[in-house]
Design a protein that fits this description.
The chain is of the alpha/beta class and 227 residues long. It is built from eight helices and six strands. The chain has a six-stranded mixed sheet with strand order 3-2-4-1-5-6, with helices on both faces. The N and C termini lie far apart (38 Å).
Length: 227
């Protein structure tokens, strides 16, 4: 199976650098809506069997134009939402961002027992994300291509651990902008291989916002420098 993990379009929290992970969460900015519209043309060459979204509003809004164009109804998954910020929810200061990022990237190096302050540990995150991926795989034939609209930190950490050819430090060193796409293939049984890592918006550089203060999508070094 091919899975196109797409990060949602830009939100106000992405612009301001706020740790905003609670449900239902914000909708999209004007730029985020344009990013979502651009997805339709960018993926017109793909034979997409299904579109999946998380429980957060921003993934629904991002998926809507593509779903309308393809005549598909997005399916909500229980476990592909953003990594919960716990006690850091709603904060944007340097120490809070550092605490959030150092926790999630510790999971990428195998320290799954480390917990977010007031939030989940790595074992809990992978359990719920793995379960949703397994649900998607079970619903389609091996040659299917599906889109899962998810979130910056969640996509980066899950692929960093579960995808065999990325390497431990890859997610921390590579950004994933809004509507950036990580394409993988395989299965839980055979393992996953990355086909591409599209760090920029899938609609092109004209849809990027270099002024946004976006810690969950930037490289670890850049995110900490900006905060």
């Amino acid at each position: 199976m091919r899975i196109l993990f797409m990060r949602h379009g830009q939100t106000p929290a992405n612009v301001l650098g706020v740790l905003d992970t609670a449900a239902p969460g914000p909708g999209l900015t004007d730029l985020g809506s344009r990013q979502a519209e651009a997805v339709v043309h960018a993926l017109e060459h793909e034979r997409i069997a299904a579109i999946y979204v998380s429980q957060l509003r921003r993934t629904h809004d991002t998926a809507a134009p593509l779903a309308t164009a393809l005549g598909l109804t997005p399916v909500q998954l229980a476990g592909t939402h953003e990594i919960e910020a716990g006690a850091l929810e709603g904060l944007d200061d340097h120490d809070s961002v550092r605490s959030y990022l150092s926790t999630v990237f510790a999971w990428a190096t195998g320290d799954l027992g480390r917990a977010m302050p007031g939030g989940p540990d790595g074992d809990a995150f992978f359990a719920r994300f793995d379960a949703s991926v397994a649900e998607v795989v079970a619903a389609h034939p091996d040659d299917a291509t599906v889109v899962i609209v998810s979130h910056g930190a969640a996509i980066r950490i899950w692929t960093g651990v579960r995808v065999e050819n990325l390497g431990e430090g890859f997610p921390a060193e590579h950004h994933l902008d809004n509507t950036g796409v990580v394409a993988i293939e395989g299965s839980p049984a055979t393992g996953w291989t990355a086909l591409s890592w599209g760090g920029m918006p899938i609609g092109g550089l004209q849809l990027a916002d270099p002024a946004a203060d976006d810690p969950t999508g930037e490289t670890l070094e850049d995110a900490l420098d900006e905060h």
